[in-house]
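Pilot study result, target chain (137 residues):
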Amino acid sequence: MFVVESGQDIIVRLQPGEDFFESLGSLNLTAGAIVCGIGMLRDVTLAYWTGREYKEHRVSGPAELLSLQGNFSRREGKSHIHCHAILGLEDGSTVGGHLSKATVHETNEIYIRKLTGIVMERRQEPSGLWGLYPRSS
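Predicted structure:
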């Protein structure tokens, strides 16, 4: 992983074979926004929230990372990454949803904006969903 920071901006380049969440998690951010990301992923698990639970589906082969958005927050005292992705498949179709698991297939180029003066905290709600509770620090 290559990381360059300037002020509140972070540019990350992930390398083939890296675990997407493990690598980004090593940044230890608890308040940040994943503004955009491109590249390729494999061994992906996407999920859809039904209102009661996440239903997962897997994309095993390589897929283009067409869009990536999300945030970094604090969940039970640790850094937590919540993001959604749209993937382009070889046949030209797309799939998307909550990104739960992924391995970098080719490079991933990600722009992150650190947030200052803001606490981003996740709390479990009665539905089972971990809701975001942002506040001023």
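One observation from the pilot: The chain has one domain: 2-136. A full batch analysis is planned for the follow-on phase.
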